[in-house]
Amino acid sequence: MKDLFSLEGRVALVTGGSRGIGRMIASGFLAQGATVYISARKAEACETTARELSAGGGRCIALPADVSTVAGAQALAAAYAGHESKLDILVNNAGAAWGAEFDEFPESGWDKVVDLNMKAPFFLTKALAGALRKSASAERPAKVINIASIDGIFVNPLETYSYAASKAGLIHLTRRMAARLIREHIVVTAIAPGPFASNMNKAARDDADNVARRVPAGRVGSDEDMAGAAIFLASRAGDYVVGATVTVDGGMAFGNPGFKGGSWAAEG
Questions:
Q1: Is pLDDT above 80 for 130?
Q2: How far apart are the C-alpha atoms of 13 and 26, rounded to whole Å?
Q3: CA-wise closest residue to 174 among 200, 192, 158, 156
Q4: What is the pTM for the complete model shown?
Q5: Which helix (H) or strand (E) holds 204?
Q6: Residue 163 falls in the annotated catalytic set
Q7: How far is CA 18 from CA 38, 65, 168, in A?
Q8: Res 68 pLDDT > 90
Q9: Which of 25-34, 85-94, 191-200, 234-243 is predicted least confidently?
Q10: What is each CA distance from 154 to 87, 94, 232, 257, in whole angstroms?
Q11: Half-sphere exposure of residue 237, counting CA atoms within 13 Å on the CB side?
């Protein structure tokens, strides 16, 4: 029981790991003893974050990549294979958002968001399936954690059509992938964040007090809140949680259905 949440000896890859929710998760994994690879589209930011996280203890390695295309996902998998033969934990966190009025919503805003938020998690998991299978066993399953959003659970009043659709799709994709991959001892789950301070959720970052008034828990999420949920799913504690989406939102998705304004769209 004392090692229930330990990640000692495990290797993780976190996409979108240079900032925001990805960085929170990477930091939490490092604190629990994992070796963590982080990926992000901007190489300099990725390298800087890896150095900063390593300085706090543990081993964090940067693998810059753009996973918005199948070729990019395959390139990241190949880069990872140059360092490790097995993968214990994959966190599909890289994501984007786009907001525009219905009559003005562009095809580019649809394709960019859906490709990165829903297509990329599937094809990156597929590209890394060999490494996940090498790690997986009945005694210690490999883990895939998709970062969705509460915007995929209920309707945000903001006109972020492709974001909401992609996150709802990712939640169901998580179930479908889980049903298939559990046969090979690969556990697939998801996290649906609410308001966390990040570059994507500038309202939670820059106006936390106002956003907190809309959250039943009375505050925006902390780094520990996000890291804790991810550590639970990644560790032995979450081995029997298959296909589930864990909401980490202070009660926003289910406790405040009458909210009619503002933004709490999560990163990922």
A1: yes
A2: 8
A3: 192
A4: 0.92
A5: helix 202-206
A6: yes
A7: 7, 11, 24
A8: yes
A9: 191-200
A10: 33, 21, 24, 9
A11: 16
Task: Give the three-class secondary structure for 129.
Answer: helix
Q: Structural domains in the chain?
A: 11-255 (3.40.50.720)
- Which DSSP helix (H) or strand (E) runs through 110? helix 107-114
Residue among 80, 161, 163, 240 flagged as catalytic: 163
Determine the distance from the C-alpha atom of residue 173 to the mean position of all C-alpha atoms in its chain, rounded to a whole number: 14
Window from 44-58, 105-119, 199-213 with minimum mean pLDDT: 199-213
Give the whole-angstrom CA distance, residue 242 versus residue 57.
31
Quick: pLDDT tens for 79-102: 999 999 999 999 999 999 999 999
The answer on pLDDT for 261 being more than 50 is no
Cβ atoms 109, 100 nearer than 8 A: yes
Whether residue 258 is predicted with pLDDT greater than 60 in this model: the reply is no
Q: Which residues of 58-94 are buried (b: 16+ CB within 10 A; e: fewer)?
A: bebbbbbbbbbebebbbbbbeebeeebeebbbbbbbb
And the tokens for 169? 């799709």
Report the alpha-carbon distance of residue 261 to residue 211 in Å, rounded: 11
Residue 43: count other Cβ atoms within 10 Å of its Cβ. Answer: 13
30-34, 43-47, 207-211: least confident range: 207-211
Both ends of the chain: CA-CA distance in Å?
32
